Amino acid sequence: ENVNEYHHFCNTYLYVISLMSDKNQKTGAYGEQLARKYLERKGYTIIATNWHCAYGEVDIIAEYGEILVFVEVRTRHSNTTETAFASITPQKRERLIKTAYSYLSETERDDELWRIDMIAIALQYGQTPLIQHREDVLDW
Any idea what the CATH number is for the domain that residue 41 is in? Predict the structure, then answer.
């Protein structure tokens, strides 16, 4: 049953991806690239990107010292990061938690310290991207 659920998720996910515009895909991919570089400059070690399971996807999984960090990246064409931060619904937060637990279980890292962070990126034409990183978003 889990296999069927996973296949259904994958097919649904691929269908939704196919409906997204090229512009949104490129914006998201660019934002994730900026976020990876930002984290690496801050001393994080990237161990996975776009990790999928039946519950959803984590954009970036990194290690920061002894802590495993799951990072959701939101990129918007805006002059502020607030719209990106506001786009995380309670349902999305719940999926992030379930996805994190799935990763911990599959990789046998259940006993490690971990947290979920969010990076919001605001893109404005002709200007340097604005990047804001909030740690441990479960505390919001």
Answer: 3.40.1350.10
18-60 per-position pLDDT tens digit: 555 555 667 788 899 999 999 999 999 999 999 999 999 999 9
CB distance 56 to 99 below 8 Å? yes
CB-CB neighbours of 30 under 10 Å: 14
Rounded Cα distance between 87 and 105, Å, is 28
Q: Specify if 4 maps to a domain.
A: no
94 within domain boundaries: yes
Decide if 83 contacts 90 (C-beta within 8 A): no
Q: What is the domain count for the chain?
A: 1
Residues 75-127: tens digit of each pLDDT: 988 888 888 888 888 898 899 999 999 999 999 998 999 999 999 999 988 88
**Using an 8 Å Cβ cutoff, are 60 and 35 in contact?**
yes
